[in-house]
Design brief:
By secondary structure, this protein is an alpha/beta fold. The chain has helices at about 35-45, 65-70, 75, 90-100, 125-130, 145-150, 175-190, 215-230, 240, 250-260, 280-290, 335-340, 340-350, 365-370, 385-390, 400-410; strands spanning about 10, 15, 25-30, 55-60, 80-85, 105-110, 135-140, 195-200, 200-205, 230-235, 245, 245-250, 270-275, 280, 295-300, 310, 325-330. It has 16 helices and 17 strands. A 7-stranded parallel β-sheet has the order 5-4-3-6-7-8-13, sandwiched between helices. It has a two-stranded antiparallel sheet with strand order 1-2. The radius of gyration is 22 Å and the shape is globular. The chain starts with 8 loop residues before the first strand and ends in a 16-residue tail after the last helix.
Length: about 425
């Protein structure tokens, strides 16, 4: 099944993608968490080759909406079968849902974002039910937070970040660790089923739901500043302003996930996932201003006395085990900006003038949950793609083009207003 003997291909803004043996046909995939950013984008990546993936079981509590399905051509939509599954229910209930839908999948892709309080997801009994669909491979993606895997939410880590770095379980336990342990243990007991684990970073992709989407909040922020006639202000210090961060476009990660499960030599391996390039906040803010017609960009606050500092752990209490703590210094946060009533009023004006096209109102929920994108100002280190490259994956996407495409799709989903330009300026 190796893709190394075949030429690379391009699909939209995604470049250098693997091409597989044409004899690979009529495969069936079960995607758990199908309505989320990552789950839906993996479905789109798989159905980029509908002759290879004849059936995708889209498992979630609610079916894919008409708006999400409108992003797919009819040929791809016809390959999707929704399976109602509540991953917080018992293993027996999950098994019954899979049996009722007559699920027979060659590959399982697991994207359900469930915290420990959510119940049974990925416990041994639940995993046992997955294998009854007889998969060759089960792939687990650890949410949008490889940062939790290596501990950057705790403090300073070793960079670049590689898959073999020890997890700081002695400092902080996350629900991803037991998920990984359960998957590996299960596949050890059922050697015909292999595993993969994918570690993305800040995930990029359009969604109908506002919360926990890093760049969505920047789109809202910029659209409102443009309507106010006010500058686009950066809310952190000069170190963050020039930091070159890596991000993970969900659709490209979907292509990487397909490549991983179809590659025999990739069996029982974990892989980082990022776009293959870097993006500074300096470059992003100036491009973002162009997209929405903001007349001025104001960079980082240079007056140290106006910066509020958040200090993470250092020394032995940090994953690195030595050296000073990491620091995030803000002049303001997006949540603080959103708490100004004028921002809410301008957004409601944008909604009212959109003739029903803009339907999402972040102020109807928890502002801290929605306007959380500026956590990404923290310089956390760069994830290495050496392992994926050495195994043969060469996929690449320009993160600026990816964010622009994400905003275009969010306009179609009714969550952002139209931009003023037709395309992003690639980083070339």
């Amino acid at each position: 099944m190796s893709s190394s003997r075949y030429p690379l291909r391009q699909s939209g803004i995604s470049r250098n993608l693997p091409f597989f043996d044409p004899s690979l046909r009529d495969l069936k995939a079960l995607v758990i968490g199908a309505t989320g950013i990552s789950g839906f984008r993996t479905i789109r990546a798989l159905l980029d080759s509908p002759e290879r993936w004849s059936k995708v079981y889209a498992a979630s509590r609610s079916p894919l909406s008409k708006k999400l399905l409108s992003l797919l051509p009819e040929e791809q939509r016809s390959c999707i079968q929704h399976v109602f599954v509540d991953m917080t229910s018992s293993a027996e209930d999950i098994a019954q849902a899979l049996r009722k839908a007559d699920v027979a999948a060659d590959y399982v892709f697991y994207y359900a974002y469930l915290s420990p309080k959510s119940g049974s997801a990925m416990d041994p009994n639940t995993t046992e039910e997955f294998v009854k669909v007889n998969p060759r491979r089960i792939l687990l993606q650890t949410g949008g937070k490889n940062c939790w895997n290596n501990g950057v939410h705790i403090g300073r880590v070793r960079t670049s970040i590689v898959e073999s770095d020890p997890q700081p379980r002695h400092l902080s336990l996350t629900f991803y660790y037991p998920q990984e342990d359960a998957l590996r243990a299960f596949c050890d007991e059922h050697p015909k089923t292999k595993w993969n684990i994918i570690y993305p970073f800040a995930i990029l992709g359009a969604t109908e739901h506002a919360s926990m989407n890093t760049f969505f909040s920047f789109g809202i922020y910029t659209a409102i500043q443009a309507n106010k006639g006010e500058p686009l202000k950066f809310g952190a210090d000069f170190t963050s302003w020039q930091f070159e961060a890596a991000h993970s476009t969900a659709r490209l990660t979907g292509y990487l996930s397909e490549w991983a499960v179809l590659g025999e030599k990739c069996a029982n391996q974990s892989f980082n996932a990022q776009d293959g390039g870097l993006l500074s906040w300096d470059r992003f803010f100036h491009e973002l201003a162009q997209w929405y017609g903001v007349f001025e960009v104001q960079g980082p606050e240079l007056d140290e006395s106006k910066l509020q500092t958040t200090i993470f752990t250092g020394g032995k209490e940090a994953p690195l085990g030595y050296r000073p703590p990491t620091k995030l210094r803000n002049s303001f946060t997006l949540a603080q900006w959103a708490s100004d009533s004028s921002s809410k009023e301008v957004w409601e004006e944008i909604m009212a003038k959109s003739d029903g096209n803009v339907t999402e109102n972040p102020w109807a929920g928890d502002l801290k949950d929605f306007f959380m994108g500026d956590f990404a100002y923290l310089p956390i280190g760069t994830p290495s793609m050496n392992k994926a490259r050495s195994y043969g994956f060469c996929g690449f996407v320009d993160t600026l083009e990816s964010i622009f495409e994400m905003f275009q799709e969010m306009e179609k989903l009714g969550t952002l207003p139209p931009m003023k330009v037709d395309a992003a300026q690639p980083q070339v």
